[in-house]
Design a protein that fits this description.
- This protein folds into three domains: 142 residues, Orthogonal Bundle (Globin-like); 85 residues, Orthogonal Bundle (Methyltransferase, Methionine Synthase (B12-binding Domains), Chain A, domain 1), CATH 1.10.1240.10; 122 residues, Cobalamin-binding domain (Rossmann fold).
- About 1% of the residues have low confidence.
- The protein is built from 17 helices and five strands.
- Strands 2-1-3-4-5 form a five-stranded parallel sheet, with helices on both faces.
- It is of the alpha/beta class and 365 residues long.
- The chain is globular, with a radius of gyration of 22 Å.
- It binds cobalamin (B12).
- Cobalamin binds next to helix 5, helix 11, helix 12, helix 13 and strand 3.
Length: 365
Amino acid sequence: MQDLINESGLLSKIPPAAAKAFDARKGLLVERVNQALAGRSDLKKLIGNLNAVEMMHDNHRNHAMFLTTVLCLNAFRLLASVIPWVCRTYRNYGFSFDYFPAELHAWKDAIKIELDAADAAAVFPVYDWMIERHERFVRVAENISVNGQSVVSDDNVHKFYQAVMRKDINEALKIGEYELARDSRPDKFYQFTLRPAMYRVGTEWEQGKISVAEEHIATSVAQTVVSTLHLKNPGTGRVVGKAMIASVAGELHDLGARMISHSLAVSGWEVTCLGANMPIMTIIETARKTKPNFAGFSLTMPYYLHYLRRIVEAFKADPILCNIPIIAGGAVFDLFPESKSYFADLNIIDDISAAVQKAREWQNA
Ligand code: B12
């Protein structure tokens, strides 16, 4: 794996205009790729089952977003570390590994039509790089062991996992309340019980052991637990400052954002939590209005990292926001540590207790 990551250094920087052109035309590119694959007589062999067309379309949308990130940030090391995960996940859902080169050639054809010649020529080497190394990526994908995040040794984590899978809200809440009564702060429960339990849910979904429906039900139980704990333990006392927390545009994972918000609230912060999928302009407007002492962003999918860069640049360029410190966290930095390297100018913090601790630096005097 490391050799593939290192070989990503062979790729040259993408001119910003080419990355912008790809981003602007990505909807049309996705349509063309969908059509090209639909027209193939071997589609069933490639995706395993014609009912998987919807999942294939999803993958093309995700690919467009992810390549936008890769091209905008020149995130080639990240590209190399994400590809095996993609191959492995879709393989678990019945896709053939041969689907990937077929798809990548369709992307090249679409780019040739939609982008002007200079922009296409700048982007093609990235696609050729992936196509040429396909067999090697497959070998890595075949050998990745179960996601390290999912190792669950703690008894409480196991109990919580079972409760969310059984849709047993009362039991899940009882575990949370018990831990909060012991500790009075929610950070540890979120970090060491809820998070590993949900990571296990994700790994089992990824391996095709549980359905999307089961994953969604487990998630809704976890969401209910977080909201109820927040409602019952809102945090009182002296307000130490204002914080704004959001998941970036496109990002539908917001449980992490809600947990950090609750943990900060308990420590006296007045938190504006904007939740999932927050457009950049709304983030900027809200920050201008609420003037937080700091802003925190949550990211799970590698596809949306370029939005974080755009938010950071927008803050830097804004006379009201330019001095507001930014922290970021979320599963992407843990799943793909390469992500951190594109944000050396930010505080990337994975652990919510550490984030609450860090926030003290920005409290009102
Ligand atoms: C629940 C869930 C969903 C729900 C989210 C609902 C919601 N409202 O949040 C739904 C169903 C929407 C969903 C959708 C998808 N998901 Co999903 N999902 C999960 C799952 C099972 C749990 C996520 C979660 O809540 N974790 C619990 C929280 C507590 O953990 P956390 O977010 O990491 O947060 C902790 C820290 O990171 C930190 N933190 C988080 N944010 C912040 C912010 C700051 C400022 C700080 C300081 C700290 C911090 O604090 C938290 C506590 O420790 C994960 C499994 C996993 N490994 O994460 C998959 C997972 C993240 N999903 C995955 C995928 C693939 C998808 C989809 C693409 C599936 C699809 N085909 O549609 C979509 C993408 C949607 C999108 N555009 O964003 C993959 C991602 C893998 C990858 N390569 O990136 C995972 C890992 C599953 C897997 N093993 O394959 N998903």
